Amino acid sequence: MIDVTDRHCRYFHRLLAPHARLYTEMITTGALHHGDIARHLDFNPQEHPVALQLGGSEPQALAYCSKLGEKWGFDEINLNCGCPSERVQKGAFGACLMAESDLVADCVKAMQDAVSIPVTVKHRLGLDYSEDYGFVRDFVGKLYETGCRVFIVHARNAVLKGLNPKENREVPPLRYGDAAQLKRDFPEAVIVLNGGLKTLRDCDEQIDRYDGVMLGRAPWHDPIILKHISEAWWPELAVLSESQLIDSLAEYATHQVSLGVPLRIVVRTYLGLFNGRPNSRVWRRMLSDQKSLNHANGELIREAWKAVGK
């Protein structure tokens, strides 16, 4: 979710789903060692609970970045062992780490020793075209021995050569059965299912076999799914009406613009909000018009909502 789940996106998603646990985009250890730390780690207090997702393969570097994350106030540190992009592979982290379970265990142990908050792992079921369940069972088992208890399982393999990241989210077959087997083999672990979940019905059909579900790209394309899940699973929690949501987004956007954040950066995550509704194209067009965005603040959001209509 690099360049997707930034703090503006997460603030938006929190408004839609008060109980969800939010995750940052994957931030590499190099970016925190050599880049603008505040730009990468600043977040809005309303985002809690929020986890910092790290990409890296050096125990000391990951320990240092985990400490930064805890200092910044994150509730969890997550190690990404699932991203299959070539850019990540060149850095020797992401999904390719699944072939080096001893190294990952060393990384997790170093992270655990550095912080008092939970250290969790996101991973795939396997690499390339082997569907040997024993591979992921042994990988999880090695990390379980370090004390890691939360595993977010993207229920597909990662094909390291020949498929781009988008294809890796669609071409390798989903193997929900193997993901569920992990819960049976590690009943004390928290197993969260990821992959192929696009609707409330998808989540309802799977949740009984797991401790949770993670949605990735689906809320980017159709954000309202988060509200539907929240209303269905936590009916006791109040959710914002549409007018309240628009007011919150407009006020947030106006504040961010006053801080120097370009409006286009803030609103890009809102574009799919009215997908399937009449005049949704009007909403997207108004929030994508560069000329308007260059000279507007959050009032543009209210204007676009009025154009969509009820």
Automatic annotation (TrEMBL):
Annotated InterPro entries: Aldolase_TIM (IPR013785), DUS-like_FMN-bd (IPR035587), DUS_fam (IPR001269), DusA (IPR004653), tRNA_hU_synthase_CS (IPR018517)
Catalytic residue positions: C83
The UniProt record lists the keyword RNA-binding: yes
Binding-site list for FMN: Q53, K122, H154, N194, G195, G196, G216, R217
Residue ranges of the TM segments: none
Protein's UniProt keywords contain ATP-binding: no
Molecular function, one GO term: tRNA-dihydrouridine20 synthase activity
Catalytic activity: 5,6-dihydrouridine(20) in tRNA + NAD(+) = uridine(20) in tRNA + NADH + H(+); 5,6-dihydrouridine(20) in tRNA + NADP(+) = uridine(20) in tRNA + NADPH + H(+); 5,6-dihydrouridine(20a) in tRNA + NADP(+) = uridine(20a) in tRNA + NADPH + H(+); 5,6-dihydrouridine(20a) in tRNA + NAD(+) = uridine(20a) in tRNA + NADH + H(+)
Domain DUS-like FMN-binding stretches: 1-297
Assigned EC number: 1.3.1.91
Keywords (A to Z) from UniProt: Flavoprotein, FMN, NADP, Nucleotide-binding, Oxidoreductase, RNA-binding, tRNA processing, tRNA-binding
Residues flagged as site, Interacts with tRNA: N80, K166, R169, R281, R284
UniProt xrefs under PANTHER family: FMN-LINKED OXIDOREDUCTASES SUPERFAMILY PROTEIN
Family: Belongs to the dus family.
Name under which the protein is recorded: tRNA-dihydrouridine(20/20a) synthase
Source organism per UniProt: Sheuella amnicola
